[in-house]
Structure formats: structure tokens, C-alpha cells
């Protein structure tokens, strides 16, 4: 499928026709984290493997960024999990056994 050139779009608009744009499909998972190395962390890799997701299906964003996704993982603080959102502490604190346990319990409810 080819895209229209600027000239073609302008010509269509002059005729009162707005070209249809297929909306972008939401990504599978958006991880909201301040750490830019989040996706390379072994624990995050384990979670992605559990969810059968590749890195291409995941977006890494900060809290104030708007990303359209099917599911969100907030890495800031714990809140109750919902069908589309998972909350955990920041990545540095997920090395503690209690924090990992809470994450896996949240994942069980989330799946």
C-alpha cells in the first residue's frame, strides 16, 4: 500500500475529499518508567517472556507521555492491579524479595 504525496493530499482536499488514514493499532504493553534501561533488565525480560511479548511489542515511556497501549505497567509505586494496568515499585527496588513477590502476585491477578 502506498502513501499519498503532499500534492495528492492537497488535490484531494481541494475536491473536498479527506484521505482515510488507518488508525495506528495500540501496542501490547507500555512500561511507564523513569529508567531508560528498563527493557534490558533481566526481571523485565522475564515478565515479557511470561507475557509472550517481544521488545518490539513494548513501549517505554515516562509518566507524562501519552501512549496508546492495551496494557500499562506503572513502575513507580504499588496500587491495586486492574485488568489493563499493573503497578510496581521502581526497578531498583524490585531486587528485594518482598517487592518481587508483590510483582508476581500482581501479575497473577493481571493475567
UniProtKB/TrEMBL annotation:
Transmembrane segments: none annotated. GO terms for biological process: DNA replication. One of its GO terms (molecular function) is 3'-5' exonuclease activity. InterPro entries: DNA_pol_III_psi, DNA_pol_III_psi_sf. This is DNA polymerase III, psi subunit.
Amino acid at each position: 500500500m502506498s502513501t499519498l504525496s503532499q500534492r495528492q493530499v492537497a488535490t484531494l482536499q481541494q475536491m473536498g475529499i479527506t484521505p482515510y488514514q488507518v488508525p495506528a493499532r495500540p501496542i501490547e504493553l507500555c512500561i511507564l518508567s523513569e529508567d531508560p534501561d528498563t527493557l534490558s533488565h533481566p526481571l523485565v525480560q522475564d515478565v515479557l517472556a511470561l507475557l509472550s511479548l517481544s521488545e518490539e511489542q513494548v513501549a517505554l515511556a515516562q509518566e507524562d507521555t501519552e501512549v496508546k497501549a492495551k496494557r500499562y505497567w506503572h513502575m513507580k509505586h504499588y496500587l491495586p492491579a486492574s485488568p489493563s494496568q499493573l503497578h510496581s515499585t521502581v526497578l531498583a527496588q524490585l531486587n528485594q524479595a518482598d517487592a518481587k513477590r508483590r510483582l508476581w502476585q500482581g501479575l497473577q491477578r493481571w493475567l
